[in-house]
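Late entry, written up from scratch paper. The run itself happened at the end of the previous shift, but nothing got recorded in the book at the time, so transcribing now.
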Amino acid sequence: MPALEVADIFRRHGEAYRQAHAGHFGRVERRVMAAVEACRTARLGGHVERCTECGLVRIAYNSCRNRHCPKCQGAARAAWLAERQAELLPVPYFHVVFTLPAPAAEIAFQNKAAVYAILFKAAAETLSTIAADPRHLGAEIGFIAVLHTWGQNLQHHPHVHCLVPGGGLSLDGARWVSCRPGFFLPVRVLSRLFRRLFLEKLRAAFDAGRLAFFGTRARLADAAVFARCLAELRRIEWVVYAKPPFAGPAAVLAYLGRYTHRVAIANRRLVALAGGRVSFRWRDYRHHSKNKVMTLEADEFIRRFLLHALPDGFHRIRHYGFLANRQRADKLALCRTLLAVADADAPLGDNGERQRLADHAHDLCACGGRMEPIGAIMRSWPASASAWHDSS
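Output as recorded:
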């Protein structure tokens, strides 16, 4: 277990933060802080468990299950990955990232649900449209998209990671169309269409009255000012990044494990909490990905962490194309038929990866034995606190 956790910072400095920011502290942020503070403590209750092999007895407190909690993602990640294993196809997979420029990110921060949804839609439509174009791939593709809203320094940096098989179904559904070796779609073409689609959808949201502006951005509520902002965004280059294909199914699963259930900062990156300041490790991508240590006042660290609290019910993992939920089973079966691979032969990753996922599903003792509950510990907080967990 890490020596320092986000929960420690919240417990020590959270109340002061709440008082200092009481005038503009939202319900979602309050719930995130309360959940992280209470996670795996007597507040939420738990059970006493004993190892079936060595007889060790220990107390295991309940998790808060909040998707923003650094300690609560392991089980959810393992279960989700186990489902994705059977969906992998024996083709190269690509990692494509769509990033909002800073002015658009500022609009997104004040309109999270509306603009994050636009980001998803614009990225998905961009990939699907360019892939369907006969000049590029001429196929229906499928992909998983995951929203991240942070950079390594915890500042607001919304972007969508997409995991895309290197090919798709021909538009008549009669054959599998493979992409060129080592190349999926041209990023410059993707970037231009992504920019146009996002700005069109953002304009439509503004015209429909679905955007709100306050503070330093309040002037954007004026139609003329907003139009000038969109014009400026059209003149700058938008970043779409495509990485080289993954080296096999196990690498795809490892990627999914790193990205799908990640939170703004993992406990293992925390270095110290002293004198009211928090130090943590970060990677400076502007300086050759150099590893550095950043130190912030506790108040600022908490503020940055809470920048990434998502609206209630907002899904940060979405499926598109032939991987869309409503048609996934039938379309994947067709893909495997066209690729001449049976369901039983679908690549599931190596044995080590499968075992790692299986181990997450059980609470194991240090000796390797299984821990079994032998008694319950009642929670010390009201049962309504269990509502802190939320959807992905």
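The CA atoms of residues 144 and 392 lie 13 Å apart.
(Scratch paper discarded after transcription.)
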